[in-house]
Design brief:
By secondary structure, the chain is of the alpha+beta class. The chain has helices at residues 2-24, 32-41, 46-50, 74-79, 81-90, 112-120, and strands at residues 27-28, 55-58, 95-96, 107-110, 131-134, 138-139, 145-155, 158-169, 172-175, 182-184. The chain is globular, with a radius of gyration of 20 Å. 32% of the residues are buried.
Length: 185
């Protein structure tokens, strides 16, 4: 009986461990509306403008930027409440971006370890203009409002990131002009 209990406990621990590893494993990010929004924003990032050859996009979504009341006016916060809630939920998971951006410049989706290793060794990709990073996109229930955090690092102290708000009007995403938190150097 004791051996059977031991085997059951070990099996249960193995199952729990596998479930924990599976939940922390990155997931492919396959949200078509998110890629439409990304494709609208990427050409406006500093790294896009500086890239003379292949643009570098970080494969993993960023999870560090939290939507806070300080980043949105009370009116905007109320209007985008559901999208902000979805954003907060989505950013708790590890997501891997795919090559689904519709932009004019050639680009690569590159693992962050490779990006930061190259930058730390002073061997960044020549003429890439740095790299662009983004969060998963948070949507309201009807997928008519969205919020995303996006930015670029263009070398040294050059960089910028901010939240962007979008509304879907006549089946097209349009950026909503609203003051949000901006980080720049």
């Amino acid at each position: 009986m004791r051996t059977l209990s031991f085997v059951l406990i070990i099996s249960l621990l193995g199952l729990v461990s596998a479930m924990c590893q599976e939940s922390s494993a990155p997931h492919d990010y396959q949200e078509p509306d998110a890629y439409q929004i990304y494709s609208l924003l990427v050409p406006h990032e500093e790294s896009y403008g500086f890239a003379n050859s292949t643009l570098i996009i970080q494969q993993e979504t960023v999870t560090s930027a939290a939507v806070t009341g300080a980043c949105l006016s009370p009116e905007v916060a109320r209007r985008f409440k559901d999208a902000a809630s979805d954003y907060e939920h989505a950013r708790t998971k590890k997501w891997l971006l795919r090559r689904q951006f519709k932009i004019e410049k050639p680009y690569e989706v590159v693992d962050s370890k490779a990006i930061y290793t190259a930058e730390a060794s002073d061997q960044p990709r020549p003429k890439s203009g740095g790299h662009i990073f983004m969060s998963p996109v948070g949507f309201n229930r009807g997928k008519t409002l969205a919020i995303v955090y996006m930015g670029s690092i263009c070398g040294g102290l050059c960089g910028r990131a901010q939240f962007h708000l979008f509304e879907k009007i006549h089946n097209h995403w349009k950026e909503v002009p609203a003051a949000t938190c901006v980080v720049a150097s």
